[in-house]
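Look at a sample.

——
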Amino acid sequence: MGFKEKFDALNIAVAGKWLFNFVFIGVIAGLGSIVFHYLCGLGMHFFMDLIAGYRPGSPAGEHHLFAPTSTEFNRWILLFLPAFGGIISGWLVYTFAPEAEGHGTDAAIDAYHTKGGLIRGRIPIIKTIASAITLTTGGSGGREGPIAQIGAGFGSFLATTLKLSDRERRIMMAAGVGAGVGSIFRAPLAGALFAAEVLYRDPDFESEVIIPAGISSVVAYCIFCLVFGWGSLFDSPAFKFTNPLELGPYIVLSLILVATGVLYIKVFYGVTALFKKFKIKNHFKPAVGGLITGIIGFFLPYTLAFGYGLAQDAIFNTVPIKILFLLAIGKIFTTAFSIGSGGSGGVFGPSVVIGGAMGGVVGKIFHYLMPTVVVNPGTFVIVGMAGFFTAVSNTPISTIIFVSEMTNSYHLLLPSLLVCSLCYLLSERWTIYKKQVKSRVDSPAHAGEFMMDILQTIKVETLFHKVKEVRVVNENMLFSEFKKIFSSTKQHYFPVMNSQGRFIGIFSSTDIREVIFTIHIEDLVVMRDIMVSDIIYTTPSEDLNTVLFKLTKKNIDALPVVKEDDTGSFMGLLYRRDVIGHYNELVRQMRDQE
């Protein structure tokens, strides 16, 4: 077998190994989605149906896993049920895995940027149980946070077990996020894009994540659907965008979604900050938040739990405008108190319901005012789902695909693109994901890589103004003469020239340590005896990344700069601090421009 054949065989083996890893992550994430979905169904049946007699509707793509009971609806039980769930989930989280509090996607983002993709093995287990309890006892939240941590946790665990690098662990962790989210929302393409986009506030993608997350997401989606059936999460009529005049109301919708999104973020983190100040044990805070959630649910029960059933009905224009408005505003507060108090759940699910409800309100108003332009208010529900989550998450591209896959409404891509673009531009300052960083430049995960990318584009000749002219010494100079020079200069490196003025070596103040303290030989030693003749140098055409590599490899602070085709022509010294200083200045200028 020739070299090419061996090389190709090696590449195929490596690709096969990675493919197996990503498929394995998809299998576990898909099974995790099945378990979590079943736990949610079991909890809804036992707590909400059997105990409280409350049976919220489901989206068309989901069905009750258990037959409804005959228990009569009891508002008083519904009032205290979220507090009961808060006590259990609070004890679980703060006893075994405090970092599992809140919405899990933020924890996964933080692990990617600052922890090398490392997630403790127990977190997905605790997050799954605590979230299922929080959500099925009436707490308002989404399923993407817990399932994202299940997939991310296994990806991290697998990478750690295989002793992979931090970079590889980050990729596998992100693949798990995409697989979990893509499967449980039946949106595999969006799951892969979401895992790559949600890491940053700017419209930036983690490109190396997309393919791995895509493989894992497809596998997880197929496994989940094999158990719970195929098709989209929501059903929708065959909506089509045919009237350009409808873009006017969509622009108004964008403004309203941005205002509602900012309210959501402010309320959510206002409640979070309030509960952090409470002088009670963390274990009990979710119970307090659950009690307040229950009080809201006593009057507005449809703001509890998931709320997908009403969003489904709104698409078919069967929900009154008053209920839609109260659902949107009430869901903001129940989510804030359920999750912001330390409860466990995601924020994407509530965002879909809030955005859909507010979109329904706007659609119905414009349908009343302009019935020939806005013919179907249900289209505003779907576009509202996409626009609202874009406004609070800074993920316009994946959100457009998310909602299109979830509702099977690809003909609304054009108005969704307009609304999501406007929502992103107007709300870029705010985000529900506090652990997002602005861009790859700001991510600790890419600090070294980004520095390398920048330095590779800059040549030494660009820094000629930083190249220092220094004092040189002749190879035949006695050390006793050099001591007089050394005592009057702060120079650390000394180039050595021969009698023809050619650069032949260099030494540092460290190299003269032995001689300087041996008085009897200073008139016998010449500089040729001390210098290093195996010179490491740079040229004007060399890039700064190579310069920095040479400096680091030899642990020195300066490199001689010589002419391009003449290593004997010394031009000066380029110092490490000047290279790094130039890089820092470039980064500062880039950030100022942003």
Remarks:
- DSSP finds 22 helices and five strands in the chain.
- Residues 244-440 form a domain with the Clc chloride channel fold (CATH 1.10.3080.10).
- The mean pLDDT is 88.
- Residues 3-51 form the longest helix (49 residues).
